[in-house]
What we know:
The protein is α/β, with parallel strands linked by helices. It is built from 14 helices and 17 strands. It has helices spanning 13-24, 26-33, 62-67, 82-93, 103-120, 136-143, 158-170, 174-183, 192-195, 198-212, 231-239, 301-318, 364-374, 405-416; strands at 4-9, 37-43, 58-59, 73-76, 97-100, 124-125, 149-155, 222-223, 242-252, 257-267, 279-286, 290-297, 349-358, 379-384, 394-400, 403-404, 426-430. Strands 7, 8, 9, 10, 11, 12, 13, 14, 15, 16 and 17 form an eleven-stranded mixed sheet that branches. Strands 3-2-1-4-5-6 form a six-stranded parallel sheet, with helices on both faces. Helix 4 (82-93) packs parallel to helix 5 (103-120) and helix 5 packs parallel to helix 10 (198-212). The longest helix is centred in the first third of the chain and has 18 residues, at 103-120. It starts with a strand and ends with a strand. The protein binds L-homoserine. L-homoserine is lined by residues 132, 157-159, 186-188, 194, 199, 298-299. L-homoserine (HSE) is lined by residues 132, 157-159, 186-188, 194, 199, 298-299.
Amino acid sequence: MKPVKVGICGLGTVGSGTFNVLKRNAEEIARRAGRGIEVAQIAQRRPNPQCDTDSTPITADVLAVADNPEIDVVVELIGGYTLARELVLRAIANGKHVVTANKALIAVHGNEIFAKAREQGVIVAFEASVAGGIPVIKALREGLAANRINWVAGIINGTGNFILSEMREKGRTFPDVLAEAQALGYAEADPTFDVEGIDAAHKLTILASIAFGIPLQFDKAYTEGITRLTTADVGYAEALGYRIKHLGVARSTDQGIELRVHPTLIPADRLIANVNGVMNAVMVNGDAVGSTLFYGAGAGQEPTASAVVADLVDVVRAMTSDPENRVPHLAFQPDALSDHPVLSIEACESAYYLRIQAKDHPGVLAQVASILSARGINIESIMQKEAEEHDGLVPMILLTHRVTERHMVEAITALEALDDVVGDVVRIRVEHLN
Ligand code: HSE
C-alpha cells in the first residue's frame, strides 16, 4: 500500500522531534499503522540545526501545505491561535486530516474546528495537546469509557512544576529556573502562559470536556499562577505534611462543573505530590475504576513527538476504517454533549491553608476563630510560630475543612479588617484527592 503523505507545519522543538521519531522508527511505525508514513513537505520559517530534513521539500508558507493536493494529513505544530486556526480550518476544508499539539487552539477554537471536521468527515487528533507524552486523552476517551468520571486533577504544566520543584529542593530563584526551562524548550513562547496558569487552564479545559461530555469552555476556567508563592508558605506546608503543587482540578458536582487551576496543598504521601521536575501527572477518578494516575514527561521534544506520532498512527489506521464510527473528539457523541454548567470559582468548594500575619496580642486567635466559625468554617489545625524578629509579627497558619470559596472570601475580608491582622491573608487551596 502507498505510504500516507504528511505535511509538518512548524519545525521547532516538537516539529523536529516528530520528524526525527518518524524517520528513526519508520519501520516499526509502518508495522503498527499498516502503511508507511512519509513526510512529504515541511513548512518552516527558519532552519533548525537539530533536524536533518534530507531532501524533504521545504516551504516558508504553512498554508501551502494545507493546499498541497499530495498531502493527506497536516500536522500543525506552529502554536498560537491565529495562523494555526487558519491553517487547520483550511486543511479541513481541503479534506485533509489534522494532527495538532496546540492546546490553546483546541481549548479556544476546538468547538468550531470539530464541527467543521465532522462536516468534512476528517479527523482532528490532539493527544499531544495535554500532558505531552502521556496518552491521557486516549485513556479518558477510550480506556475509561465505562465510567462516570467524578474528578480529574493534574500537574499539567511541566515548566511550572519544574520551577516549584527546583525552588523547593535546591532553593533556586524563580527567574533562574524559568530561564533554564526556556533553554530546555519546555516553556511556552510567552512564558507567562506557564507561570500564570493559562497553559494549564487550556489543558484542563480539554480534559474536562472529554471527562464530562461538555463543550470546550476555556473562558469559564478559573486561573491562578505560581508567581505569588513564597518559600515561607512552601516551608509551612511541609511542616503540616503537605506539598504545594500547581494543580488543575475539574470536578463534577450536582450544581455544575468545577474548572480551576491554582497552587494547591496536597498531602505529601500522595503519589502525585511526589511528581517533580518537568514531569506531569493526571489523576482520574471514575465511579467504576476508582482513582487512576497517569504519569510521564509533560513537555519536551521527543515526549511530545511520541504523542503526535501516535495520533498519526491512529489517523492512518482510521483512514481505512468506517468513518461513521470514529472515536468522537470529546469522547461523547456531538449531539449528546451536556449543558451541565461550569461553576464560577465562588461556587467551588475546597479546603484552605491560611497564613495570617498578626500582632502579638492576647485574644487574636479567638477573634480569628470567631470569624471563621460565624461562617461555618471548621478549622482542621492551627500552627502558630514565634514572633518574627524583624517585625514582631506572629505567623498564624490554619488548615480548614472544605467550604465554598464565597464563604472563604467573606471570612478573609473580615480577617483582613481586624486591627491585629497585618497585610493580606495568604490563602492556598487544599485537595486531599481521596
Ligand atoms: N509549556 C508547556 C509545559 C509545554 O511546560 O508544560 C507542554 O505543553
